[in-house]
Structure formats: C-alpha cells, structure tokens
Amino acid sequence: MSDDSRRVSLLLGLLFGLAGMGSSSAAVAVPLISDDFAITAGQATWTISLYTLMLAVTTAVYGRVSDLVGIRLPLMVGTGLMTAGAVLAAAAPTFEVLLLARLVQGAGAAAVPTLGVAVLNGRYSGAVRGLALGRLAGVAAAVSCLGPLVGGLVEHAFGWRAVMALPILGLLVLPLLWPALTREGTGARLDLLGAVLVALTAAGVVLLVQSPSTGLVVAIAGVLLLALGAPATVAWVRRRPHGFLPVSVVRNSTVVRSAAAAAAVPSAWFALLVAVPAVLVADGWEPWQVGVLLLPSALIALVVPRIAGPAITRVGPSWAIAGGAVTAVVALALASVGAATTSAPVLGGAVLLVTVAFGTAQPAMTSAVADAVEADVRGVALGVATLVFLVGGSVGSAVVGGLGDPIGIDRALLVLGVLPLVGLGVLAPQLRPGRAAPLPEGASVATTPTMSTGSSICCRKERCV
User: Fold this and answer.
1) Alpha carbon distance 365, 261 (integer Å)
2) CA distance 156 to 54
3) Rounded Cα–Cα distance for residues 148 and 421 (Å)
C-alpha cells in the first residue's frame, strides 16, 4: 500500500470511528441523561433511536448529493452538522433540545461512512483499494467500539455532556483530508420527496415501537406516519420508478430478503448498546467500568473482518447472513439472562457474540445485494439495503426503550429475539439448494466498512442514492 493510500484510509477510518462514537459513547450516558432530566430510561433512549434513524435515512441521501456536486462539499456539510449537533447536545438546556441536537448530529454523521468509502473507491483501484478499504474498516471499528470506554472515562471526568461533544474531534481530521476530496459531480438528480417519504415511514415504525414508554400521543403519531407514509411511498415509487427507491431494486427478492434478514442483527447490537449500560449502571456500576467490560468487543471487531471475508466466500452470502441472525438470537437470549440476573460476564459475552454477528451479516448482506443487481444500479441497491439495515438498529434501541420500563429489559430483549427468527424465515427461500451458492473462486466479497453502530454504503464508481 502506498503512503498516500495508507494516510488517507487511516484518516478516513478515524473520522468514520468518531462518527460511530456518536452512538456507542452516548449509550453509556443514557442512564445519566435520564437522571439529569428527570425522565424515564425509556424516554432517554430516544437519544440513540433518533440518532440511528437519521443516520439510516440520510446515509443514502449523501451518496446522491455527492453525484451532484462531488465529495468535498457534502462531506464538509456533514462534518459541520455532526459538530454542530454535538455542541448543541452538550449544551442542551432541555431534553427536547437534546433530541433535536441528536437528530442534527445523526444527519451529519451519515456523510462520513457514505462519502469516506466513495473517496477510496474513486481514488484507488485493484489491490490498493482493497487494502485501503480494509484499513478504513479496521480503524473505524476499533475507534467506534472503544466508544463505551472513552465515553465512560470522559463522563467520569467531565460529565455526560462532554460525552456528547466527542464527535467535535472530527473537525481536526477534515483539514488533513481536504486535498484528497473531489469537487466534481456527475449531474445525477436527487429525489428529495422520495427520501422524505421513506424517512417519515421509518420514523412511524420507530415511534410506534417506542410508544409503550412514551405515551399515547407518540403511539398515535407513529400510526399516522406509518399509515400515511407507507402508501404514499408506494405511490411515489410507481410514479418515479428510478427515484430514491427504484422499482428494479425494491422488486429484487434477493435485495429485499437479504436486507430484511440482516437488519435483525443491528437491532440486536443497538439493543445491547442501550440495555447493558442501563442494567449495570442501575446496579451501581460507573459508566467507565461498563466501557472496560465492553472493551473486548473492540478487539473482536478488528478480527472479525479477516475471518468473515473467507467465510462468506466459502458458504455464500445468504448462509452467512443466516449465521449472523442465529448468533444474534443466541446473543439476545444470553443478554436476557444477564439482565435478569445482573450478571456482568454474561452481558459481556452477549455483546461479544452480537459483535461477531454484526461483523459477519453486514458484509454478507453487501455481497448478496451487489451480486444480485446489474452494475448500473448497484449503488442504489446498496443504499436501499443499508437504509433497511440501519433502520433495524433504530428499532432495536426503540424496543428496549419502549418495553424496558413496562415489562423489564430482560423480557424486552426476548421480544426483540423474534426479529432475527422472522429474518431467517424471510431468508429461507435463498437458503434452498441452488439458491445460495458460494461465491466463485477468486471473487471478492463486496464488503463495506461498519462502525458497530451502523454501516456505510457506496459502491465502486456507480452512483449512490
């Protein structure tokens, strides 16, 4: 790997990891936010759910914007929004302002994974590009998975508001990357209305899931958004078959099944990201101690990509997704036991398992989707799949936040365990003989880096949506 590609991929990985800290470090502060604003733990969980929801929806938008104007401007805007959201969150006088800040922060952070991968795809090729993407993934995983520990230490020294400000460090990285960013676009158009309709529909799902802990008004809002947004989205897709959700992609059964099944894995990850600190802090643990407990997951996150790639090539993407879903079920069951007995070792083991599941299912989903579509819509398909994948993460934190207070966190985790089982059912047709053949010998796994809090999209040189 050349010095240039090493430097650029390292800086992008660092920026990527800092964006990931927006949720991983904030999760340890949820119990403290609950106490400070005199709200329930379920309500405080909105700081994670809304961040992840905005990350999901705007990830795809940044890809299309970069088609219009190149990478430099949208990455600068995204980093600026991430920083502004972090500052506002740190200074938020009320919980409502904090939620607004987290929405802004999530909308900005989404630019980093999307455009970071686009930089490497456009700047390098062949083996150099593969090594650069691998370095980006490793650095991003290590930094973002260190979020609970860093967040705990910062909270211990300066309070939870300082934890919210951690993504500000991204401003120090951007100037170093500036020369590597392009300003040229391809002239593709952005289907803004399509993006808004998808966002409203996804928001309806999250509001509805989290409503048991937040009241009837939230439930009604969720039902209305879902009831109005879903048919409006369908109608718009029919009217604009090449828009934000292209018909050729949403009618592709492999894309839909792979994304839906894989989305159950981030739902488990984000659920544990919220549940483990909530259980242990309530038992008297300090947030930094929770971070130490979760430190092995950072090491696992570095190792998993090296193992997952050959495994996906050997068994095929669909079976790898299925393996991730099964592992997620086991992790949630184990975490439920750990939450019921307040067993730190059991909870730590559950996080390790779900980290393995995440690191396997995400690249497997990417490979399955990339292989299932033509090159001219590959970027669009990966964008749609990643949107579904990250919405799953938002649902996971919402389930713990919504059901944790009424029925207990241990039972909420068991309820969430149904999602990976449903995902396996959806994926079943692709697991039949002849439907999930392993990748050809020598074929590359179309991985994109993950941040253990979400993932990134983009795609070689095809347009992203």
Assistant:
1) 9
2) 28
3) 28
**Rounded CA gap, 130 and 363, in Å?**
14
pLDDT tens figures, 195-243: 788 878 877 877 777 677 667 787 888 889 888 888 998 898 888 887 7
Give the integer Cα–Cα distance in Å for 17 and 24: 10
Q: How far is CA 182 from CA 118, 122, 358, 430, in A?
A: 10, 9, 31, 39
| pLDDT range class, residue 410, cuts 50, 70, 90 | very high
Return d(Cα 107, Cα 400) in angstroms, integer: 23
Q: What length is written for the chain?
A: 465
Q: Where are the domains of the chain?
A: 3-431
Which of 452, 454, 455, 456 lies closest to 149, judged by CA?
452
What are the phi and psi torsion angles at 277 (to 5°)? -60, -40
CA–CA separation, 377 and 128 (whole Å): 24
Q: Helix or strand or coil: residue 51? A: helix
How is residue 359 written in tokens?
Answer: 């690191």
Residue 168: predicted pLDDT: 86
pTM of structure: 0.77
What angle separates helix 147-158 from helix 3-24, to the nearest 10 degrees?
60
Which structure tokens are listed for 293? 């407990």
* Six-digit token string for 377: 């819509």
Contact indicator for 332, 353 with CB cutoff of 8 Å:
no
Contact by Cβ (8 Å): 360, 309: no
Residue 432 DSSP class: S
Class of domain 3-431: mainly alpha
Whole-angstrom distance, CA of residue 425 vs CA of residue 362: 18
Q: At what angle do helices 111-123 and 126-145 cross, to 10 degrees?
A: 160
